[in-house]
Amino acid sequence: MMGEAVEVWRGGPAPLDCDGQGRACLGFYLATAMESLVGLAAELGMPQAFTPHAEATLIVREQHLQLQRPAGADAALRVEADVLALGENDARIRLVLRHDDSEPAATFGMGLVHATSREGRPFPWPERIRARAAQLRLAAADRAASPQDAPSLPRDSESGSPRIGLGAVRPGDVDAFGRMQAERLLAPIERLTPGAMEHRIVHREWPRVGDRIAIWADPAHRTFWLEDPNSGRTWAWVQYGPPDR
Question: How far is CA 107 from CA 30, 70, 140, 186, in A?
Fold first, then answer.
């Protein structure tokens, strides 16, 4: 039997969270999604999942943000969450950011893994969490559209695409486990995707303090990817705007 979506966040963007046109920035949506994930973890029976002493946590592997009715400064918003699917040690969830009138402002689809907090080693869900997740599963027609599967990674930096950014992870950029926060990781890209109504993000690895980040652009396909320039390993891949057909 399908259950009901549960509220996991309530608030709104401050003026500093908005662009020059008064619309909430990408960083606001990413930060809100991560705060909402903390709330969903608690609803699943993992209230300490994002605290420094946690033994198990939820690690994001992919994100799909679709804006429906973008929010402005001081908008009253809430986030409802439900579980789309649960695997052996992974899950797909949906977060719907709603205005006061219940109309969706944005929909976030996420692919997650249940993992050890520091090493990031996936391990199976406990039965108690499986039971609770079953109560939070809704039929796809009951809520906003489900996220699409993420495409494969595009070409790497050897393709001749321009490098548009180069930097490093600072101590203030990371979460309780030392992984870079999503809104910090993708902040350099935001100014290059004005007005984009959709972002598809695949996280391959999460950089830590001292790691370097190079950002490469492929404007023809509206894509960016972030790499470690020392080793060449990929941190993340991003596509913005409507997906290629």
Answer: 11, 11, 13, 18
